[in-house]
Amino acid sequence: MNIIQRLIPVSNTATRPGLALVPKFITIHETDNTGTGADAAAHARLQQRGNDRAASWHLQIDDHEIIQSIPFDEVAWAAGDGRNGPGNRTSIHIEMCVNADANYEQMVSKTVEVVQYLMSRYSISIDHIVPHKHWTGKNCPRNLLPRWDGFIKRCQGLGTKDGWVQNDAQWFFYKNSSKQTGWVKVKSKWYFLDANGVMQTGWVKDENKWYFLDSNGVMQSGWVKVKDKWYYLARDGAMVTGWVKYKSKWYFLKENGEMAIGWIKDKDKWYYLDPDGSMVSGKQTISGKAYTFGKDGALIEEEVPAAGGYTGDDSGGNGEGDPPAGDTSGKGDGSSTGGDNTPSDGENTSNNQDGPAS
Ligand SMILES: [Zn+2]
């Protein structure tokens, strides 16, 4: 914020009386001059060369300049409440330019900045920011009066915040100036803000369910691939575990949400999942051995694969070598704890959906 000084000559005592002012108020006016070019520079020139009315003010503001005509510790004749009126004697006066060739909203924003600066500099409280009308009843500032409360909120540092606000590389979301937390829906997309209001990305846990937010914070649904593992998120975004049917094929999501491939054991039955995660059925040759699976995908146990549950990684079940043998991996019957890069605190053990036999 830059305040340009173009002071009225001290010799012009009609408009710059030189009376001491200790600012207790800030009074807002509008020039009521909508003419093209009636900007801050024009009003400052008028004051400098000698206004033919005995009227003056400290600052004039348009959409690109803030110009000072009288020091803040001297009285200006702006309130219209008389030589000893409190409006004249206790207030700094700001004229907001309303020239048609300027952007009114930008001018108001500049004025807000100036008011905040003066409030801080002179320890003026918000209830001492007043419209000209406060002193004499004049309809001034004409355009701002109908939205005065909003203006005051902005001067308080409120009301300017709505929507996304970035601060130190973190994103926050405001509604009516209040910082939001938890889930927010913005333009039909869901976002999750932590207890401090910070927008989250990646995995988040809420009420015992996991959700995945992309790098823009948008909640995902359906299949997502995270660090080379596939996960399935329900329509409400919650990470699914157990069996899931997708486009008439069955998939199995481990307890940590990772899509399983290769052999798995579920409720004492063996199943085999192709490298794309889909469950096989019927006669299959896996790693050079013939197996028969029922329509429900369960292995018909002529020949038990003697496997230890999930093969767990991408190399499993790809037809190399034997079926997973032995249980040295400790990953048997669905108790996999998975990798270190996924939600894997292992709390959700009971929400497997019904198996494909149903
Ligand atoms: Zn006024």
UniProtKB/TrEMBL annotation:
One of its GO terms (molecular function) is N-acetylmuramoyl-L-alanine amidase activity. Keywords: Cell wall biogenesis/degradation, Competence, Hydrolase, Repeat, Sporulation. Residues 347-358 have a biased composition (Polar residues). It holds the Pfam family Choline_bind_3. InterPro entries: Amidase/PGRP_sf, Amidase_domain, Cell_wall/Cho-bd_repeat, NAMLAA_amidase_2. Residues 309-320 have a biased composition (Gly residues). The keyword Acyltransferase does not apply. Cell wall-binding repeats lie at residues 180-199, 200-219, 220-239, 240-259, 260-279. Its EC number is 3.5.1.28. It catalyses: Hydrolyzes the link between N-acetylmuramoyl residues and L-amino acid residues in certain cell-wall glycopeptides. Belongs to the N-acetylmuramoyl-L-alanine amidase 2 family. This is N-acetylmuramoyl-L-alanine amidase. It comes from Neobacillus novalis.
